[in-house]
């Protein structure tokens, strides 16, 4: 059940980010007019980060309920949670200087 919920939230966030990207691309193509059709790169972009906080019910029969944080980001931005004075990363930066991100960018064209 938990894996199914996590997959559904992940898919919804990915779809929301892709929809927003499509809107930005469409807006920039309209703004640039004919030039946009001939340019491989549209000079616009953004960063975004969303964190969702869910309450959970114990599945082991105990009375312990909890909280789950689901974080998604795109671009050069990050989320950090401070727990008892310790910074815990909730996201991973999407920077071109990161080898795996560079490979993803080149693979995407």
Overall mean confidence score, pLDDT:
81
Characterize the main sheet.
2 strands, antiparallel
Count of beta strands: 4
Question: Strand order, biggest sheet?
Answer: 1-2
What overall geometry do the principal axes of the alpha carbons give?
elongated
Helix percentage: 40-55%
Radius of gyration: 19 Å
Low-confidence segments, given as residue ranges, are none
Question: Roughly how many Å apart are the termini?
Answer: 37 Å
- SSE arrangement, N to C: HHEEEEH
Which percent range describes the beta-strand content? 15-25%
* SS content category: alpha+beta
- Count of DSSP-assigned helices: 3
Can you describe this structure?
By secondary structure, this protein is of the alpha+beta class. It is 42% helix and 24% strand. It has a two-stranded antiparallel sheet. Strands 3-4 form a two-stranded antiparallel ribbon.
Keywords:
single chain; 109 residues; alpha+beta; two-stranded antiparallel sheet
Task: Put the structure in a nutshell.
By secondary structure, the protein is α+β, with helices and mostly antiparallel strands.
């Amino acid at each position: 059940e938990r894996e199914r919920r996590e997959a559904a939230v992940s898919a919804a966030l990915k779809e929301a980010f892709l929809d927003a990207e499509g809107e930005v691309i469409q807006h920039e193509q309209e703004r640039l007019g004919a030039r946009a059709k001939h340019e491989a790169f549209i000079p616009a972009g953004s960063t975004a980060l969303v964190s969702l906080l869910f309450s959970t019910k114990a599945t082991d029969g105990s009375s312990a309920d909890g909280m789950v944080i689901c974080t998604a980001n795109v671009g050069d931005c990050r989320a950090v949670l401070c727990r008892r004075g310790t910074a815990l990363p909730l996201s991973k930066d999407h920077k071109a200087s990161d080898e795996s991100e560079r490979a993803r960018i080149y693979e995407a064209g």
